Amino acid sequence: MTPTLDSTKRNLARQKWQIFKRNKRALISLYIFGFLCFVSVFAPLIANHKPILIYHNHSFYFPLFAFYPESAFGGDFESEPDYNDPFVKELLKDSFVLKPLIPYSYDTIILDLDTNSPTPPDSKHLLGSDDQARDVASRLIYGLAISIAFGLVLSVFCVIIGVSVGGACGYYGGLVGLLGQRGIEIYSSVPILFLLIILSSFIVPSFWWILAIVLAFSWISLVGVVRAEFLKARNMEYVKAARALGLSNVRIIFRHLLPNAMVATITYIPFIMAGSISTLVTLDFLGFGMPVGSPSLGEIIEQAKNNLTSPHLAISGFVGVGVLLCVLVFIGEGVRDAFDPRIKEKS
Question: Any idea what DSSP says for residue 254?
Fold first, then answer.
């Protein structure tokens, strides 16, 4: 029985997954990255100063998802209560309160510290507090969430732009390829760090501003890879046959050339993510990244530099950044092996 196209694709995907699994370091890194993504997505449920559920006077309340005034729990004010305040705790002492695992958000100021901040780790604050009396564990979780979101969004747009430009240069060649290559060489010589420092002097930095500026230069690394794949494939017999049959350039590119180019592109995505996260951490460390008060891995490291007598800040920041970058690099190595035809032949 002749195998169908779908079954052939499934067998090929299964073979690549088996090759990836043989790299134990990459497989463990994938599980760790999956766990970090899970924690990032559910960060508001894991670290928050608002309870998830309150059962008070035979009624259910969900402060994490809705606004409730203090008067709803027997207080005097119509404003939202501070659920960590001793007075509010006294109001809810006979109620069922389901709190997040860490009862502090990334911007919660802790008022009941035993000593001046930053404080070392203890039973209430597993990673201690920073110099603004905020819980380090909470800020680390939200910082990881921002870094992962930044890396994922940037990687998607990098692939779209890099594949489009590289594909056009490689497929059409000639004057288009020459002008494209020379233009990219000039464009890539612009120092992105200095540009960001200059722009930050007259714009308010934000997640999307930083993403847009870093994206403007990050896609360049993909152009050479995609261009080489298109140059190699455009003279293949199946492409010549497609032209002879009258297929348009757009259909040839998307139907025949792009799938082959994406194989090489996929292996670059984890490394693009690692590079973009490193850039964000560097900018936050230098003070040109996310707005003041935003949870950031670079900001934790910057606090460690300013508080050398509090090693828990340095350990938390460096471990968070190191683990995230290492798992991305190891995943990239595993993906590269999975798509390497020489390894496939040996399997």
Answer: I
Q: Calculate helix-pair angle for 269-286, 311-338, nearest 10 degrees.
A: 160
Alpha-carbon gap, residue 310 to 252, rounded angstroms:
60
Of 312, 311, 316, 310, nearest in space to 296 by CA:
316
Beta bridge partners of 129: 135
Confidence bin at 262 (pLDDT 50/70/90): confident
- For residue 279, the one-letter residue type is T
| Predicted confidence (pLDDT) per residue in 110-129, tens digit | 888 888 888 889 888 889 99
What are the C-alpha distances in Å from 143 to residues 2, 39, 170, 249? 52, 11, 39, 44
Residue 298: Cβ within 10 Å count: 25
Residue 217 and residue 192 in contact, taking contact as beta carbons nearer than 8 Å: yes
Cβ count near 313 (within 10 Å): 26
Sheet-wide strand order for 53-56: 59-61, 53-56, 96-98
Dig out the tokens for 256 from the structure: 């025949």
Whether omega before 118 lies within 30 degrees of 0, making that bond cis, reads: yes
Report the SS3 class of residue 47.
strand
Confidence of residue 1 (pLDDT cuts 50, 70, 90): very low
135 φ/ψ angles, rounded to the nearest 5 degrees: -70, 125
- Listed in sequence order, the DSSP H helices in the chain are 5-22, 24-41, 43-46, 86-91, 136-172, 174-187, 192-199, 207-218, 220-233, 237-244, 249-252, 258-266, 269-286, 297-306, 311-338, 341-346
* Number of other residues whose CB lies within 10 A of the CB of residue 121: 15
| Residue that wins the pLDDT comparison between 180 and 2 | 180
Residue 233 backbone phi and psi in degrees, to 5: -85, -20
- Encoded tokens for 194: 């200095």
Q: How far apart are CA 331 and CA 20, in angstroms?
A: 9
Q: Round to whole Å and give the CA distance between 340 and 168.
A: 25
